[in-house]
Amino acid sequence: MTTTIKVGVIGTGSIVEMFLDACYQNNMECVAIYSRNEETGKRLADIFYVDDVYTDLSEMLKRDDLDFVYVASPNSLHYEQTMMCLNAKKNVICEKPFASTIQEAEEMARVAKENNLFLYEAIVLKHYPKLSLLEEKCKTIGKIRLIEFNYHQYSSRYDAFRAGQTPNVFNPVFSGGALMDLNVYNIHLAMILMGYPKAVKYIPVLERGIDISGTALLDYDGCTAVLNASKCANGSNLCQIIGEDGYILIPTGTNHIVNFEVHQKGNVEVIDVMENENRLFYECAAIKEMYLNKDYGKCYEFLDDTLDVMRVLQDLRMSSELRFTCDK
User: Are 256 and 239 in contact (CB under 8 A)?
Assistant: First the structure.
């Protein structure tokens, strides 16, 4: 008998539409949508044939049929809303960045573990097919000396920011900016491949208190990871892992690894990664499998990795002048 996992969602942005498409491909049914704006919530509900729309989150969380809640609200709301879900004994998939601070993240993880609940950061690259093969291929290119990851995406809200407005994604109140929204992907992959860095430094381009772009430097023994991200410009998202005996090239960036190339001694091996056009498909499939198998151990391994990334994110911010309202 096929088990249908029932999901409620918080938020109505484009990432939610992609998530819901991935859910339905994995026999996960959305049964409830929370939005502060009822009209926006109903628009999404009509697209995905969801009957119930809420403007009061506490009311949605009273439902007995929610196996998971997907949190896709502005960054600064992740902690409060995830804690509401966990305290209502709901499993949670929380969009990146997991929280604004390491203190918030640790509290979220503590409550999840104490209540035997599943809690995930929605980082798609953690669940990519053949990610383990990428890790294996890194061992074939000799000692890694340099990592260069790029994620440049001109934000749909940047024109408003340039015009003097303060959209959430460019607002220190909402813990926005290039580091938290984009460079988090680069940091996750660098740490998957290299582990926890010896030291970190962040060099942001600050405008009105927020980083519209920036470079994160992660120091490893004999290797530096140079991680660039910008929300104010488009650019090549080409990524390289450079070793003494070859290099690996990821043409499409860390958040959407379609394939990667292994270059050694004049030979090029191209390895395809994704077959499904919706990259969130694999994330949903992995979470569903862990949930049905009650694999809390694997879930909490991912959660511990998320906490390590949150520590690095906070150390990067503290190494610069980038501060959020929640830091005060």
Answer: no
Evaluate whether 34 touches 44 at the Cβ level (below 8 Å).
Answer: no
Does residue 300 belong to any structural domain of this protein? no
**Same domain flag for 198 and 115:** no
Render pLDDT for 218-248 as a digit per residue (tens, 0 to 9).
Answer: 999 999 999 999 999 999 999 999 999 999 9
Provide the domain limits for residue 113. Answer: 5-124+280-292
Q: How many residues does the chain have?
A: 328
pTM, two decimal places: 0.95
For residue 20, tell me if it sits in a domain: yes
Other CB atoms within 10 Å distance of the CB of residue 135: 11
* Structure tokens, 37: 């704006």
CATH classification at residue 108: 3.40.50.720
Cβ–Cβ < 8 Å for 296, 118: yes
